[in-house]
# Entry
Amino acid sequence: MASLPIFGLLSILLSTAFATGIRHAIIRKPSSDHVPIFREAPAFLNGDVCGSDRIHITMTLDANYLRGTMAAVLSILQHSTCPENVEFHFLWGKYEPEVLESINSTFPFLNFRVYEFDSNRVRGKISKSIRQALDQPLNYARIYLADILPTDVKRVIYLDSDLVVVDDIAKLWEVDLEGKVLAAPEYCHANFTNYFTDLFWADKGLSSTFDGRRPCYFNTGVMVVDVDKWRQGTYTQKVEEWMAVQKQKRIYTLGSLPPFLLVLAGNIKAVDHRWNQHGLGGDNLEGRCRSLHPGPISLLHWSGKGKPWLRLDSRKPCIVDHLWAPYDLYHSSIHSLEE
# Structure
């Protein structure tokens, strides 16, 4: 399915959601008061052109963001030419049987594996950031993909849980990394100095790390990673070294993003901006509504404080949140759609 321009996107998504049976799917009985109840998603089958090559996608998994994860998975499958070739690798901080049961019952045909991320890996390494959600150990699991994923996974797409894909994910999977360890949309118009403190820029011993590079901001919620190259280049250790500096000198305030920028900004493969229409959750403090950026869209990302499911439930949604709603498998959303 071709990626969609902003024009007409909302009406197309809404009509597609109802056409695929999201409105009338099965409601599963809850197994826990703490885990949302989800409807069973339709089965998605491969097209005639599909081979056997896998597309590997990694996401974190926990009860607090499970509603977002379910919507993201549905959107990926729904827009894939070869949905049966997509394999998900979920990372969680602890075994949660209700969460696993929800995945199995909502997507009975899903190809997936689950791995435990040991929070001890980041114990004593996380510094307080601008928003508490950014300080959760699972937010740092993306640093350790090369240690967690099996060696047969050579490349992976890492995705946050607060997004939906409205294009064939194979297009992102097939991007030519051109020898780089990581590919992501770059935003060179952003004021890069804002991602680090004045103390950092004043210390030439620290800021000189960008010498010889043209660093640009990139969002770590959408990345294509060469796992083998990451492992061979000891990138996990390089990121951890900057986290250790942060504990001593307070050189940034935004969680796991800045150490990625310190190691890789200016040395990644740039991907078209259509693959991360980010910032739809607003800023990190108030989460105010934001409009879509001009241009075609392949992925919508509610990075920032505001999450679409929370704003929809509060009956105070932003306009862009209605682009997420058709992928919401949470059973209560039936009532909001019918009203």
